[in-house]
Amino acid sequence: MDQIERRCASLTALLHRLNPDVDIEDALKTTTVPPRGLQAAAYDGVNPASVDEFEWSESSLGSPGELRRVGLDGMASLPTGGTEAGYLGSSAGSSILRTVPGLIPEQSGLETDRRKQVSEDPNQNPDLLLQAHLGTSAILDGLVNAYFTYYNTSYPILHESTFRQQYRNRHRLQDRSSWHPIFYIVLAIGNWILGGTSGSRECQYYSAARSRMSMHMLESGTLLTVQAFLLIGNYLQKRDRPNTGYNFIGIAYRMALGLGLHREPPAGAKTDSLFHERRRVVWWIVYCFDSGFGITTGRPVMASDSFIETCLPRNIDDSACALTSILPTPSDRPTTYSAIIAHARLASIGNNIYSNVISAPKENILNLKVSRSLDHRLKAWRLSLPVYFSAQDVPDWFRGPRAVVGWKEQNIRMMLWWGSQRLCSIISDVEEAQNMCHYVAIETIQDITTFCLDYRGNIHVGLSWYATYFLFQATIVLSIHYLKPHQPLDMSPDSVNKELWALSISRARDCLAQLSQNNEAATRCLAVLERIRDQSERSQQSSLTPSATRPNASVHADHPQLQPVPQIEDTIPTTFAIDPALQILFQDTEWNNDIFEGLQGFPITDEVEAFDYMPPNA
C-alpha cells in the first residue's frame, strides 16, 4: 500500500509539472480504464489453431511499450506467412497470390528493420501526456488545421466553420457529448498526416476517441454519430486496421440508412438549407467508402444505386455559412466539395465494373463489348469533369484531392481490363484486354511519378499512402508479365514495349525510393520489386542455359525470360492474406518462396486469427 501511495504522489507531481493548471479531480472523472478482467475472460478457452480461417484480430494502435508485431496493410495488399486477415474476395490483390504455387512460405520467422519496440519511459503515464497535450493550444490548432487542409478537402465529413465554433467552445460541452469522439479522431488524423506515425501521442488521440464511444451511440441515430464512425473507420484503414475500419464503416452505412440519408428531404421542406446539403455530402462519402472498401477487399459492395434518391452535393463555398443558411450559388472554382462530387460519380461506375467484371465468377464468359462500354463510361466521366480538374492554375490545397481521384479512376480502369482478360474466351479478346491493362498501368505510373516530381512539397503522409498503393499495383501488373508463360507464336512484348515497360518500372522504383524517405510501406514495396527483378533475371539466365532434362526447352527457345509454370494447384498455402486487388494479378506466374518472405507490414498483411480486439498480452 505504501508503494502505491508513493507512486500516486509521484504521478500527481508529474501531472502538475506537465500542466500546472490541470484539475486532477476533473481529469480523473473523465478517464476510463477498461476492465481487464472482462478482457481476459473473453479470450479464455480460445485456441488460436482452432478458430475459423476468416477470423481476425486487430489490437489497439501502438499502445505505449507494446511490441507492434507488424505494420498491417490498410489496403489488404499482399500476404502474410501464417495468419488470416478476414475474408478477402477475388478483387483483392491477395486472391491472385493464392493461385501461385509456392509464392509465400507458410510461416516466416524473419524480421525487418522496421519491427521494433516502442520505447517509453516507464514513469510516463499516457493519460497524463494526453492532458498535457490537450492543454497546449498550439499543438491542437496545428492538428486541426492539418485535418481540414489535407483530409477534409478530399472527404468533407465535417463542416469546418461549425466544427471550429464547437472547438472554440469545447470546454462548455458536456464530457460525454457525441462531439468529443469526433474531436479526438480529428486530432488523430491530423497527427497522422503531419507524420506522427510513432510515439504515444497518436495512440492517445485515437484511444481518447475510442474511450468515448460506447453502445449508447448505437441506441440513437444522429448525423454526428455517422460522422464519428466514418472518421474512425477511415482512420483505422489508413493505420492498417482494415477489418476494424470495415466494421465501423458498416455501422456508419446502416445508421445512414436509418437516418434516411439516401433519400431527399421531404417535399414539404420550405427551403433547401445547408443542413440538408450536409446530409447529402455525408451520404455520398458513406457511399464512396463502402465502394472503395468493397473493391479493395473483394467483399460485396452494399450500396445499390437502385434505392438511392439523394442528389449529388453541389459545388458550393459554404465557409461563411451556418447550417441553417440557405444554400449559396454553386461556384465554378474548386471548393471543399469538388473532389467528393467527382469521386461519387466515379464510385457509381466502379461498382458496376466490380459487380459485372472484377468479381464475376470465372465461369462467366465475357463479351468484350461490355468492357469497352464500361471503359467508355470512365472516359466520359473524365471528359465531363470541370475544367479545374485539368487546369494548371488551381489552389495548392486542391492538387492532392484532384490527383487521388484521377489515380482511382486509372486503377479501376486497369482492374477492369485485368478482370476482362480473365473472363474472355477468344484469344484476340484476351490480347486486347491485356494490352489495354498494360497501357493503363503505364499511364498510371507516368501520372503518379510526374506528380511526385512536380509537387514534392504537396506530398503529405495521406497523399503518399495513395501514391504508394496505386503506383505499386501498376508496377506489379507490368513486372509479372515476364513471369508468365507465353504461347510459342506469341511475339509480345515487342522490343518497343520492352523498352517502354523497363522505363516505366524504373520510374516507379525511383518514385517509391523518394516516397520511402517518409513512408515505410514504400520501402517494403521497393523490396518486393527488387525480388521480382532478381527472379526474372535468374529465370532469364536459367532459360539461356541448354538442358537436356528440360522438356519444354524448345517451346521457350524464343522467349528466354519465360519459364513453364508447374501445374500444381493444391500446394498453395492457405494461411496468408493478400490484397484482393493485387492477388488476381499473380495468376499463372512462377514464383520462388522468398518473394514476400520476411516483410512485416505493407505490402503484406499479418493479422491475428481470433475475431477479437484483445491486445496481445490480454
From TrEMBL:
Residues 536-564 are annotated as: Disordered. The chain crosses the membrane at residues 178-195, 215-236, 463-483. GO terms for cellular component: nucleus. Residues 245-319 form the Xylanolytic transcriptional activator regulatory domain. GO terms for molecular function: DNA-binding transcription factor activity, RNA polymerase II-specific; RNA polymerase II cis-regulatory region sequence-specific DNA binding; zinc ion binding. GO terms for biological process: DNA-templated transcription; positive regulation of transcription from RNA polymerase II promoter by galactose. Residues 538-552 have a biased composition (Polar residues). Keywords: Membrane, Nucleus, Transcription, Transcription regulation, Transmembrane, Transmembrane helix. This is Fungal transcription factor regulatory middle homology region.
